[in-house]
Amino acid sequence: MKIVFVSLIFTIITWAVPTITPISTIEINGTVKDMVLSGNNLVVATDMGHIEVYDIMKKEKIKQINISNVKDFMGDEIPARVMSTDTIDNKYLLLSDSGKGGYSNLFVYDNNLTQILSADDKEAIIKARFIDKNHILLGYLSNEVALLDLISKKELYRVQLSESKFSDFALNEDKTQVVFACESGVLNLVDVQTGKIIKKLKGQNVDNVYRVDFKNKIVSGAGQDRRGAIYDTITGKGSYISGDFLIYSTALSPSAKKVAFSMDEKNNISIYDTISKSKIALLKGQKSTLNVIIFKDENRLFSASDDSTILVWNIKP
User: Fold this and answer.
1) The whole model's pTM is what?
2) I need a labelling partner for 244 at 20 to 30 A (CA). Which of 52, 211, 228, 297 fits?
3) Mean pLDDT, the chain, integer
4) From residue 205, how far is each of 48, 65, 181, 186, 264 by CA, in Å?
């Protein structure tokens, strides 16, 4: 009788979690590799050699910025894969593969396209973000962090954070701190202006952390070990939520009261209360492996997978 009662309670709790489907979709010309939200503009990096800027209020594409094709190992021309993008003050950043030796191309668009780094510079950069209009933070495959001055085109510093391979980084709201993830599971909280490690966040992930987010002094980490980690950057203390599959992506709401993780092999997105760790909603409709999740506000989300469709969600009825 006791087992039946416990089973019934579990079933009721499971049923109480609402299942959400997308309220709309955004079609992109190419597979989405990265995206950022700036105001009402969604900036999307693709594997087809361009970024697209989409106005989420007007529900239309308002800009497309293209870069040149690259040559593959056979010498054939193919579209460059734009791995990372960002925007500030009507300037756009495009970090792409060069087709040569795993090295990166870095461009800044400000009415005209300017190439900052090429394959000749032999830099293997995985992610880049604006700190301000004259400085870009770089995340290297070798798990180095660097701050690039766009005026001098020189790095103000480059710091090796660990020997582990880099996975992802996320900036806080005022871009004074950044959290770096790597294959070891340890997250490094870093001062953006100096590159110095402020704190090591560890103990919740024991393997590669694919993605991180950083909001309101809280960090979330999506782990290969099927753990969705949550850390308080002030105390350094953390906890984790167990998933059923590799957790490829995560995002925090602006208040950090809600966290999203891709928790199962069906690419569903689970939304949790970060304090109680209770599941708030289950978002169903993703067709392929998740790349990016972004909260617009406490209830509106955008998600992108290894396909050409961005899904728009509203978790509040």
Assistant:
1) 0.92
2) 297
3) 94
4) 34, 38, 10, 7, 17
Within a domain: 47: yes
> What is the spatial distance between Cα 242 and Cα 219, in angstroms, rounded to a whole number?
16
Q: Give the 3-state secondary structure of residue 9.
A: helix
Please name the residues in contact with 179: beta carbons below 8 A apart, sequence gap of 6 or more: 169, 170, 187, 188, 189, 190, 201, 212, 214, 219, 233
In a domain, 251, yes or no: yes
pLDDT in tens, 85-134: 999 999 999 999 988 888 999 999 999 999 999 999 999 999 999 999 99
- pLDDT, tens digit, for every residue of 33-48? 999 999 999 999 999 9
Q: CB of 307 within 8 A of CB of 32?
A: yes
Decide if 295 is inside a domain: yes
* CA separation, residue 114 to residues 43, 139, 180 (Å): 18, 20, 27
AA letter at 2? K
Q: Mind listing the pLDDT tens digit for each residue in 264-292?
A: 999 999 999 999 999 999 999 998 999 99
Query: Rounded to an integer, what distance in angstroms lies between the CA atom of residue 134 and that of residue 151?
Result: 7
**In the structure, what pLDDT confidence band is assigned to residue 15 with cuts at 50, 70 and 90?**
low
298: its two tokens = 């406490």
Number of separate domains in the chain: 1
Question: What gap in Å lies between CA 174 and CA 42, rounded to an integer?
Answer: 19
Q: Residue 179 sits in a domain of what CATH number?
A: 2.130.10.10
d(CA 214, CA 224): 19
Q: Is 215 a residue whose pLDDT tops 50?
A: yes
CA 168 – CA 253 distance, rounded (Å): 18
Reading phi first (left if > 0) and then psi (alpha if -120 to 50, else beta), residue 216 is in: left
Quote the Cα angle for 299-21-253, to 5°: 20
What is d(CA 303, CA 44) in angstroms, rounded to the nearest whole number? 11
